[in-house]
Amino acid sequence: MKNFFKRNENSSYTEIDRNEIVLDIEYQFGECMTILHEIVSDDLHIDIAVVPPTDNMDFYKLFTVGMGSKEMNIPRELKRQKLQRAELAMFISKDWIINTDDIKYHWSIQLLKTIAHMPFNQNTWIGEEHTIELSNAENFGGFSGALLLSLQSGRDAIVLNSGKHLNFYLTIPLFKEEMLYKNQNGYNELLDLFDNNGITPINDFKRKNCCI
Prior knowledge:
- With 212 residues, the protein is an alpha+beta fold.
- It has one domain.
- It contains four helices and nine strands; from the N terminus they run αββββαββββααβ.
- Strands 1, 2, 3, 4, 5, 6, 7, 8 and 9 form a nine-stranded mixed beta sheet that branches.
- The protein is globular, with a radius of gyration of 17 Å.
């Protein structure tokens, strides 16, 4: 594995932590093509690890590296589940262009970073089955929010040598009407709706709105 990271004073992750995360990603999903480094950061430095399509997983795999360097404000009754730290993932069809500043494509990267910052900007937390509302849908390909699915959480969470437990959540962008459907009918009903319409965790951003 390449040594992608340099020490960043604004993160409680060490260089070793970051490299451990990438090693785990590579073990499960394939070698990282690149790390998209965040140039300007506040107190949360979030890079994006990109795993290109492979023969057995023919789609892009994107992962935040940095969100879990801080603990979210988890309700006291859930702290034993060690849900305080999280990273996000997104699977994208192979025809998407990843490493570009073209807003036509780059919004997918910005969506991940926007969600990653939300718990700390709002002093809250996010986790499995949560829906995240986004303002300015025109900045995110027409999507108004996102659904989080568990990729690795709870007992399956990554545990770094430093003792940090990292829960990974898969991000599915949602149209406004799909957000409303989930809020009115529930998580499982939305998944059933997606299944009936052939929507998979591998995002095709040209897909139809399932609620229109």
